[in-house]
Amino acid sequence: MNWIILLFFFEQMALAQVKSPVLEPLADIISDDYEAGPFLIYNCEKKHWVCVIEDNYTSCQNQRLADDKKEGVEHSCAPIGKFPTKKSCFQRVLYMTGQNYGDRFCLKQEWKEKGVE
After folding, report:
1. Of 30, 50, 104, 109, which is the most buried if we count CB atoms within 10 A?
2. Residue 110: pLDDT above 90?
3. Do 35 and 53 touch, CB atoms closer than 8 A?
4. Stretch 28-41: mean pLDDT, rounded?
5. pTM of the predicted model, to two decimals?
6. Cα separation, 32 vs 97, whole angstroms
7. Total structural domains in the chain?
8. Which domain covers residue 101, as residue numbers?
9. How far apart are CA 47 and CA 74, in angstroms?
10. Is residue 18 in some structural domain?
11. Rounded to an integer, what distance in angstroms lies between the CA atom of residue 103 and that of residue 62?
């Protein structure tokens, strides 16, 4: 009877050593708000550049249209464009961050025109 318990023990140890496959995440989630992708946006509220998936980019475009209908000086988001890859988008973020270009995309058009007058 002891050999049955011993056999069961070794069987459990062997099963424990079988490693389950490491699952890669299906999405490249970079924050609570975004998933990484090749689309560049500037978040005017949080003052940062981010490369996102198309759904996040479309949401930014829609939010910008909604912002146009509201009173205020700035947009909440600026959709900039699509890049061939996430890597090329990240490279552009590095450049844009160094140039301090973000806020220029946030000011609503009527306020830009007032500054010219």
Report:
1. 50
2. no
3. yes
4. 83
5. 0.70
6. 21
7. 1
8. 28-116
9. 12
10. no
11. 19
